[in-house]
Amino acid sequence: MSDNYLGNPNLKSVGVKVEWEEESIAQYLKCSKNPTYFIRNYVKIINVDKGLIPFNMYDYQSHMVDTFQNNRFVIAKMARQTGKSTTIISYLLWYALFHENTNIAVLANKGAIAREILGRLQLSYENLPQWLQQGVLVWNKGNIELENGSKILASATSSSAIRGLSLNVIFLDEFAHVPQNIAEQFFTSVYPTISSGESTKVLIVSTPLGMNMFYKMWVDAEESRSKYIPISVHWSEVPGRDETWKKETISNTSEDQFNQEFECQFIGSVNTLISPLKLRSLAFLPPVRSDVGIDVYEEPIKQKTYVMIADVAKGVGLDYSAFSIIDITQVPYKQVAVYRSNEVTPMVFPTMINAIAQSYNDAFVLIELNGIGAQCASILYYDMEYENIIMSSFRGRAGQQVGSGFSKNTELGVSTTKQVKRVGCSTLKELIENDKLLITDFNTISELTTFVSRGQSYEAEEGLHDDLVMTLVLFSWLVQQQYFKELTEQDIREKMYSEKIKQLEENMLPFGVVNDGQSQEKYVKMPGDNSSWTADDAKFYDDHQDAGMRKYF
To answer: For an engineered disulfide with 440, which of 120, 285, 347, 507 has Cβ 3.0 to 4.6 Å away?
Structure first.
């Protein structure tokens, strides 16, 4: 039986006995207890200029290894070419060698990149002394299995990459470059795996790329809203990089590219509706409550007035049905709740709108009618009898305007025409950049960073979504309507109920009172009275006529 695995002189086969010397035993014990010692003394890497060399870690790399070792969850925001992947695979190599029966996943935004990272780990392994090696069972481009039961696999980051596997360490390389929808699906799929053990480690390393899920996880870590320990490495910490190097790099690329890839700034897309400077200053908050697609940032408060803007999709896993609830009681207006789902059907969505709108003091609801929105509005108004739906009507060259009452040109909602979108986008930019509309939801902010100029309008970048942003665009169009200005200048509810009481007065008279000997009087109709009044109607009027008719119901 050969001592080498498949004839490779640098790999030890299973069952090969090693003659231990006193020095190698001492070294093995030191390495097993201290990953930094192991890496500094025994790991070799490929240098672009010098070839195969010992990995003499910089101070920040040693700090990274110590942080990996002492914490379960670590997220690192690092500049390009700082040796981030090399540092982690050196630590993973140590972990696999000195921990039995461990499963390690190396995941990257592309499968080829993950396999290239694993290839660098294999190179370092092959250059270890054989007394530090484990016997090899499997050795290929995507998978390693060692004699001590440890396994390392390489794959693209996806929801199915490690589904069903029991893992001890997950390494996510360049996680900011994983598409947003895949990143969300991945964590939905992988979280049960992560939480199944008490010592499972998740190591995330990336250079920023806009305000995506990596951005959210980084901010949550910085704000101590999660268990992740943040590590940040600046380009100036790498020996040999100074202001001269910076100027040369910028001249060869661009200042924006340098700021993102070396200054590690979370820069969004170019030509966004909202200025990049303002986007970077927007701070999302964790919801106070989340449930089945809805994130609540502020519970309903009595006496406040709310508007809900809803955008309806088909619910087949593509575009999202979404709504935003805005507190319009005073300026600045404030986003207090959002809903976003690409699975809810148009038949179920009105039920959700009805329930949530009622909980927010019978919020005024504006529904976007393009596509199947009209069906949703019809169900909400006619079947569920929700009355506070904002209508619009066509006024010739004036375009669509919020109207009241039904007429030939009235709609239960608003259609997103070019004019509506143009006014909405212009007003939204003004509201956000002048702090007149406060955005608290992460997904909304993320969509704003990719809501860019395309032709004569604005929309999401290719492959991305703008459903939540469009709820804000329609809200901003509504802000310019005379109806909205009246809505925020006076208590419309009081006005509405005053009108109701006036109508009741007209229908009520004449009425009489009959004392049937009971302690409670009952209102009844007089002969010849054809009104639809009931005893409850009359009692409501009697109870509240001295209270200014201000009852909310």
So the answer is: 285
